[in-house]
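Researcher: Quick test of sequence recovery. Tokens follow.
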């Protein structure tokens, strides 16, 4: 049997293969995702599009230090604050300190793999802050106390029956609905109140544009818009490899990502956020009980080993990933056992699986800047 650290991977594979619910869930979802992607690729020269995206990522990664400095400058000019963090602990501590300073009691959170990577939820919950996942799949696995098992479909390992049982148990429902639409509505109604009373919204970012300091966020549920626009404080958390050079580059990625991820020509919502919104915060009776008028935006950029990976020709490949999840849907082992078996934390599939560290690479020290949140209303200046 193959052992990875203390894990008996062979036994976990056996368990996954003999779990009928998991097999049913994977059969349905993988075939659907794979099929949808195939159906839309014929409408474009997909190879040319993929080559173009690869070139853009290669160029941006080669200039990553310079582009990072540009992002810091632009976002700061636009009234936001940028924290460049060297590791998971620094990123967690920055957000936790910000939440403490602003009296945050409830956070609404959009899907963010980086937040899983740095174990943000538990860090905030340990400090008495309620964290509410607002992506439907993420909310399901949060209620189940699990980790995501797919990059874009975090609850892909669950069948509808699993979800009915879960909601009945966690929401105290004697007679839970059985139709998918009704189950979705149940969660949606429950989330709406939480959006309106959250003191902080946390999102990821699919791309960060160095030229303009713009965050690009793609989604289908509208929860990213609500998380980023309703609470008085918006924190966007992302890895430094998400930085691209220009706004024009985004057109290529917007053609590629939805097609590859969900087989859509475009997702239902694409948000481009540049600077801090000028609209006043609406007081829906937030948990703090205080009326907050000033909006704040904090961009937390995480290194956490990315600089070291970028220095290695093989590991660097992982930084070109746009997290569409298409490789998982086509991967023979993944489609049979799902994402939890790999023991990866949090990135599912072979590229996220733990393995020996590269003998060729000496860890590159990552630099951090602005790791203490500014006082509310303090003038913001670009860090040196
Ligand atoms: S590695 Fe997988 S998730 Fe990343 S861009 Fe390629 S197909 Fe998409």
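Model:
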């Amino acid at each position: 049997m193959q052992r990875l650290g203390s894990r008996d991977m062979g036994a976990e594979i056996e368990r996954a293969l003999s779990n009928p619910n998991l097999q049913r869930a994977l059969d349905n979802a993988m075939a659907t995702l794979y099929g949808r992607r195939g159906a839309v690729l014929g409408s474009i020269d997909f190879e040319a599009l993929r080559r173009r995206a690869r070139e853009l990522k290669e160029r941006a990664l080669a200039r990553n230090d310079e582009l990072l400095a540009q992002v810091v400058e632009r976002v700061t000019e636009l009234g936001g604050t940028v924290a460049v963090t060297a590791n998971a602990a620094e990123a967690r501590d920055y957000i936790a300190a910000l939440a403490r300073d602003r009296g945050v009691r409830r956070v609404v959170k959009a899907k963010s793999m980086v937040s899983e990577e740095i174990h943000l939820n538990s860090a905030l919950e340990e400090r008495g802050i309620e964290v509410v996942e607002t992506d439907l799949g993420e909310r399901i696995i949060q209620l189940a106390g699990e980790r995501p098992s797919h990059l874009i479909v975090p609850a892909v390992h669950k069948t509808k029956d699993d979800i009915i049982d879960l909601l009945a148990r966690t929401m105290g429902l004697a007679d839970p609905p059985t139709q998918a639409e009704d189950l979705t509505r149940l969660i949606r109604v429950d989330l709406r109140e939480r959006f309106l009373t959250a003191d902080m919204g946390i999102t990821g970012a699919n791309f960060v544009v160095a030229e303009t300091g713009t965050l690009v966020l793609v989604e289908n549920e509208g929860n990213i818009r609500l998380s980023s626009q309703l609470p008085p404080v918006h924190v966007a958390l992302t890895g430094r490899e998400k930085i691209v050079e220009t706004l024009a580059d985004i057109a290529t990625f917007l053609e590629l990502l939805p097609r590859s991820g969900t087989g859509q020509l475009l997702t239902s919502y694409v948000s481009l956020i540049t600077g801090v919104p000028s609209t006043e915060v609406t007081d829906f009776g937030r948990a703090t009980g205080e009326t907050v008028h000033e909006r704040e935006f904090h961009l937390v950029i995480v290194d956490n080993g990315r600089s070291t990976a970028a220095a290695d020709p093989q590991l660097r490949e992982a930084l070109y990933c746009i997290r569409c999840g298409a490789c998982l849907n086509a991967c023979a082992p993944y489609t049979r056992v799902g994402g939890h078996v790999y023991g990866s934390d949090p990135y599912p599939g072979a590229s996220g699986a733990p393995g020996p560290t590269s003998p060729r690479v000496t860890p590159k020290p990552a630099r951090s800047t602005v790791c203490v949140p500014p006082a509310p209303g303090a003038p913001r200046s670009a860090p040196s």
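The CA atoms of residues 94 and 102 lie 12 Å apart.
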